[in-house]
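FORM 7B: Structural annotation worksheet

SECTION A. Query
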Amino acid sequence: MIRIAAGLIAALGLAGAAQAEELRPLQARSIEIGSTTGVAYYQVSDDGFRVVATLVSGEANVPVRVIATLMPGQGVVLSVPQALNEASREVEIRRVNDTVTVSDISATVQPASTSGVSN
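SECTION B. Predicted structure
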């Protein structure tokens, strides 16, 4: 049986281990990456696991769709930049064999250095 574990992080600023939930193919799950929200799901295809994430942010609410077909061991990162000297908020969707995980990797991302930047 093909399974997917999806960790839905409601507050990505929290440090610690990522949480995970099981999800069957074609079951959309909510994603929140800071002020950016959306849904993600996957379907099994001949090419691999086709992951679709649709996200929206800001007052205009213009959606952005990311589509990636993952083979075992592959992943895709969804990243939302923050203010200067703040780490980006990031979620990784990764396939391991017949399991797909969605993990908050924000805690592992360092903010960009401002040394060497002049005004």
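SECTION C. Observations
Residues 4-108 form one domain. The first strand starts at residue 4 and ends at 6.

SECTION D. Sign-off
Analyst initials: ____
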